[in-house]
Amino acid sequence: MDQIDLTNLKPLILATTIVAMIIGIIFTVVPPLPGTVIIWAAAVGYGLFMGWDLYLGGPTFVILTILMLIGIAMDIIAGHVGAKVGGASWLSITLGMILGLILTMLGSSMTPIVGCLAGAVGMIVSVFAIEWWRNKDRDKAIQAIKGYCAGTTLGMMAKVTTACMMMIIFLVRVFAF
């Protein structure tokens, strides 16, 4: 069987990859899909289509994978670390995560954005309620929520930064070699 020469399709494949990466950057902020995973998958797909060693390579793959994992980790833990720094107990954070996950799944049956908003509201309300109940102090409960919101914001900024770094590293690798 003859091998297909994709050299003539390089501009189309590259443009498709870049569009997918831009969508990935958008999804680092807007739900429902993890943007760094989309960017990583687009880079891997490009490498597989166009020639792994020539257009992506092992070191670049490792760097993109590490950045993707950092982006995912920041998405998962930043808000919870912020809540802890704000004074929330692990009990309220854990129960908030559980309620947030349940509401995310229920809300996602309508639309993914509703699911993400429902999950965030569930997390915030449960942390606030548990901290108010636990400390009998509304101001401490509000402080825990402020920590959660600050951590979530920093996590989102870190996700966007890692997503942009992934795209830049990919483009430098493709155009420099």
Briefly say what this structure is.
The protein has 177 residues and is mainly α. The protein has helices at 10-27, 35-50, 52-55, 58-85, 90-108, 112-135, 138-176.
What's the Cα radius of gyration?
20 Å
Count of discrete alpha- or pi-helical segments spanning 4 or more residues: 7
Derived from helix and strand composition plus strand pairing, the structural class reads: mainly alpha
Distance between the termini: 29 Å
Count of all domains = 1
SSE arrangement, N to C: HHHHHHH
Mean pLDDT: 88
Q: What coarse outline follows from CA principal-axis ratios? A: elongated
Give the oligomeric state.
single chain
Strand-residue fraction? under 5%
Specify the helix fraction band. Answer: over 70%
Count of extended strands: 0
Low-confidence stretches: none
Sketch the major β-sheet.
none
Give a quick set of tags describing it.
177 residues; mainly alpha
Q: Can you describe this structure?
A:
The structure is a single chain. By secondary structure, the protein is mainly alpha-helical. It has one domain. The protein is built from 7 helices and no strands. It has helices at 10-27, 35-50, 52-55, 58-85, 90-108, 112-135, 138-176. Helix 1 runs antiparallel to helix 7 and helix 5 (90-108) runs antiparallel to helix 6 (112-135). The longest helix has 39 residues, at 138-176. The chain is elongated, with a radius of gyration of 20 Å.
Set down the secondary structure blueprint.
Layout: H1 10-27, H2 35-50, H3 52-55, H4 58-85, H5 90-108, H6 112-135, H7 138-176
Helix pairs in contact: 1-2, 1-7, 2-4, 2-7, 4-7, 5-6, 6-7
